[in-house]
Amino acid sequence: MAIVEVFTDEYFMREALKEAQKALAIGEVPVGAVVVANNRIIARAHNQTEKLTDATAHAEMLAVTAAANFLGSKYLTECTLYVTLEPCVMCAGALHWVQLSKLVFGASDVQRGYGLIKSPILHSKTEIVRGVKEEESRTLINTFFKSIRD
Amino acid sequence: MAIVEVFTDEYFMREALKEAQKALAIGEVPVGAVVVANNRIIARAHNQTEKLTDATAHAEMLAVTAAANFLGSKYLTECTLYVTLEPCVMCAGALHWVQLSKLVFGASDVQRGYGLIKSPILHSKTEIVRGVKEEESRTLINTFFKSIRD
Q: What does the UniProt keyword field contain (chains A, B) (predicted)?
């Protein structure tokens, strides 16, 4: 019997995509995130800026705060954040403060992504993986903005 | 009788300093903030990263979320944020999202301030005033870090 590698980046990004779907279903910009420690999802969140009337209620901010709460630690040094869209500057700044171990994101954000900033924002120890389930992540976003325009 | 200008930047920064004092009293890095709309303080907050076990619980983040909640609006386009220390990248990113009208800060943060970043982070319409009650703001921070070292 072949050994099946279950806990891949794709696996956890699918979970983040489920969160993004929840956002889409309630009319939010569909971005989802999960925080994983030791192959266990310790926090899930989706964008809730409209629901909470709070422009800072991005999926990453909510997920990071929930993960820190779960762990009882300010730092996520043993954690991976999976998020369907490249984090913005605010969220990347938050990921710096929590000293995130690894960041995995789906689609790039060419308008608001932290990668547009010329200086490094993430913590120097944070490993970065880009483009996991990129197409699905981008399709969700495009679906949302098309629905707004129509 | 002379007309006394009460609602100056110095006046509101004194209120932010009172918040910073509250942080100092409970062992937090002493940074305080208030949000003002139409000369009225609509939100007050101080750094609570230790108390909330949340590295993102900076005074500005808490104040901005509280102000948005008070106004029932995601945007703080008619608001001024007074904060005793120059915002970090995360907080400056948040101030961008809320489209803050005016930012007034006390001491510069030469280690973590958003001004260290080469790209603009704040919203293009945000007016910026630096150095209001700078010495008092810096003294508070220095007092805190000296107490930690001793």
A: Hydrolase, Metal-binding, tRNA processing, Zinc
